[in-house]
User: Fold this.
Amino acid sequence: MSVVIRKTTKEMVSEVHELSNLEGWNISAANLTLLLQTFADSTFCAVDADNRVVGHCMAATVTDNLCFGGLLVVKKERRNEGIARKLDSARREFVGNRNFSVNGLIVHLDGHMKSRFKHHVFDMKGFANNIINKEKIVKEITTPTKYKFVSLTEDMVDSLGRYDTGINIGVCRANLQKPWTFSEPARTIVALDGASICGYATVRPAETGKLLAPLYGDSPDIISSLFAQVLQSLIDEGEAMFVQVPTDNKTMMELVGIAGLREIYTMNRLYSKEAVTLPLDKIAAIMTAEATIC
Assistant:
């Protein structure tokens, strides 16, 4: 049965969400909707003769010379029909001659490096588990008294955007970052050193439990303190937490161990042309695996 590749419309979002659930990606409807709305010009669906969505992929413009790709999925019973190639072809047309990046599962690394990608820059692990004995965990994390931790308010949104731009290779991404961190159902804690922002952490609902995405901090003690703040105020006892951590961030890798989070997968950051250097010592948890480089 043939398929047609179309731009994703709001009427298709629920079917894309269902496909992501079947893959076990744990993306909430709110998070998926925000991503697809933000990058509406570069999200693609494969639609069958009955107008049902049987596949999806997206690209996100990071800079004029760099695109990021994710959410490539085909309905299980329609695989091995060339649908993924058709979706990727539409995405490649959008990307054009620009540098292209993805987070690839480690099991596919050899194939990726032989086909399209030249640079394997760092690895990232997904962790999840129910948080138990959180007060005991928080006590194990030392919080320096010099920092202040506050909930994000409207008067801080622009300053937070400037801080985020500094983490994101100097590129403003307010079209996603502002609603991701400030609009319902997000909850964001900001770390202050005096009047200056020195880190932040956002928690959003996942399909199951809570997603900590991102967590950025200028130093290991800020990262540790923000993690403790998240556990103390935004994660309920017994609630599942999901987080994606660059393995180069040794502070966060240690913290997820203290919290008893379980490793569930490993991904590789890949680039087709030039490798992009990120401040991984400041990136304890990424914002998304689907549309952002950090």
